[in-house]
Amino acid sequence: MSWTTNESEDGVLSKYHSESPLIDESNGGSSGGGVLLKKGPWTSSEDALLVEYVKKHGEGNWNAVQKHSGLSRCGKSCRLRWANHLRPNLRKGAFSQDEERLIIELHAKMGNKWARMASHLPGRTDNEIKNYWNTRIKRRQRAGLPLYPPDLCLQAFQENQQGQNTGGISCGDRGQHDPLQVNSFEIPDVVFDGLKANTEVLSYVSDLTDMSMNTMLLKGMSPQYYSFVPPTIHRQKRLRESSDVFPDSAGCVQNGFPLFDQFQNDPGDKVASSFGASFRPDLDPNKSLLSFDVTQGDHSLPNGNSSASKPIHGAVKLELPSLQYPETDLGTWGTSPPPPVLESVDAFIQSPPPVGAFESDCSSPRNSGLLDALIHEAKNLSSGQKHSDKSKNSSSISPSDMADNGTLNVCENEWDEYREPISPFGHSDTSFMNECFSASGSSLDDPPSAETFTGSVVKPEPVYADLLPYKVRESKRQTDFTRPDALLGSDLFEQSFGCIRGHGIMTDTIATLNGDNSAADYMHLPSASSPLSQEWGFNYCVWNNMPPVCHMSDLL
DNA sequence: AACAGTTTCAACCGCAAGCCA
DNA sequence: ATGGCTTGCGGTTGAAACTGT
C-alpha cells in the first residue's frame, strides 16, 4: 500500500507502505495541507465511506471527499472508484455478445473514445471497455486476426457509397444514432467522423467510388489491412515498432511472409523453413509478391528493378494503411536491429510500414476512427493505380506495384472462382477462413480453442456467426467444425484449400503440426513434389489473406 | 506442489478542457 | 485575459488471477 501527499496530486512526493488501510483523520484533514493520501486498492471500508459520502453530498466536488468523509484518497481516486465500481447500476461481469459486438462497432466508429463508447453501454465503464479492447487487440494480434469483422469494413464502405450516391457524405457521430437501437451489425455513420469539413480528405472519399470493395479487398487489401493499428499506440512507439518490424535481411519482411514467422517459436519452425526451401527456387520475383531469397538484404532484386519495394510487397499487402505512419522513415526499415520474432510479428500486424507513394497523395485522417484508415487506404490504392508510372521509379511501394503485379491478378482471378457468390464482395477469404475454423463457437468468444504458435494459450477469438457467409453457414450445417477430421475432410475445406493444393504446403504444414502424415490423407494431395511456380502467386494470396497460419492450430 | 509465463483488471498518471473568480 | 481548480479522458502500470509445465 502506498501513500502520497496531495501537495502534488499527480506527482508522488513520498511513498511508503502501511498496514493500515485508512489513515487517521488526525493526520490532517486539509486537502491542501500535505496530507498523506493513500494509493492502491480500495478496501471495503473505504468504499463504504465513499458511498456514504456520495449519498449525503452527491457526486462531484471530489476533492472535498477527503475533508468530509475522512477518506485519505485524492479526489481523482475517489471519482474513479465511484465511477468504476461503486456507483449504482453498474454492470459487472463479462461483456455479453451484444455488448462485445457493440464495442467493436463503436470502436470502428469512434476509435479510442472509451468514454463515449461507455455512454452507449449502460452500466459499463470506459475503463472496462478500454481493458476489453486492449485485450481484444492482443488476442487478435496474436491470432493474426483482423480487429474488425470484414463485414464491418464492407458496411462502412457501402455506407460511404450510399452517401455518395445520395449526394452527401455520411457524416460521423451526430449524436442521434444510438447503436443500442440498431438491430444488426449496422454502422450507419461509421468511418467518416474524421472526414467532415476536410475537403482534402473528402476528395479521396469520392475517389473511393472508383473502386469496388472487391477491388479493394482483392487487390492487396488483405485482411490485415483492416486490422488497423489502434490509435492508442504512441507515435514514438509506432516509429520504434515500424522500424523494428523491418529489420534488414532478417525476418518477416524480407521473406515477405510475415505471419509465418510465428512458426519460429513452434515446432512449425520446420514449416517456415520448408516454405523457404520449397519456394525459393521457383520464384520469379517479377511475378510473385514474394521474395524468399534471404540474401536480399539490400532489398535489391535479381532483375535490378527495385530497391525496398519489391521484397516487401508481401509486407505491404499485409500491412495496415500507411496513412497512420507517414512520419516513419522508410529508410529505417533496413537499419534497425532485428526485433524479437514475436514482437516483430505483433508489431508488424499493428504497425504498417510507411509507404511513400501512399503518403504523398493524401492527408491522413490519423485521428479518425480506424475504419477511416480503410477508406484512406482504398483511396490510395485507387490513386496508385491511376498513377502507376509515378511510383514505378519510387523506392517505396505503391499501390500500382501491387496492382501491376501479375500475381495479384492471378490472385484476383482465381479467387473469383472461390468467391462467395452471395456475399456482396465475395467475403474476404480471411473471414471465410476465420469463420470456417472458428465456426463452432456460438459465443463471440467461444470458438474452438486456439493456441498460438508461441505456445501460450490464447483466448479464442469471437465468431460472428451471423456474419458467416452463406456458403459457410450451409457447410456448417453439414460439417462438425469442432472436429478437425470432419473439417479437413469436408467440401468446405476442400474448397478453401483447393487453391493451395498441389504443392504440398498444406500437407506439410498440417503434417508438421500434427506430427504425422495424416494431413496428406486429409488433403488427398500429392505431396511436396508438385510444381509451385504456376500457383504460387495465388497460393501466396491465399496464405496471405488467410489468417493465420495460426488458425491451423484451430483445426488440429 | 512449485514455478514461470501470461492475462486480466483495478488503479494511477499526465494531460487537456471547462469553469470561475 | 489569466490563472487556479475541477473534472474527464486515454494511456500505462503492476498486482492478482489464471494456466501450463
Automatic annotation (TrEMBL):
Gene3D superfamilies: Homeodomain-like
Domain Myb-like: start-end pairs: 37-86, 87-137
Endpoints of the signal sequence: none
Keyword GTP-binding among UniProt keywords: no
CDD domains per UniProt: SANT
Pfam families cross-referenced by the UniProt entry: Myb_DNA-binding
GO annotation, cellular component aspect: nucleus; pollen tube
One GO-annotated biological process of the protein: regulation of pollen tube growth
Region (Disordered): 290-309, 380-406
GO MF terms held by the record: DNA binding; DNA-binding transcription factor activity
Location(s) in or outside the cell: Nucleus
Residues covered by the HTH myb-type domain: 37-86, 87-141
SMART domains in UniProt: SANT (SM00717)
Protein name: Transcription factor GAMYB
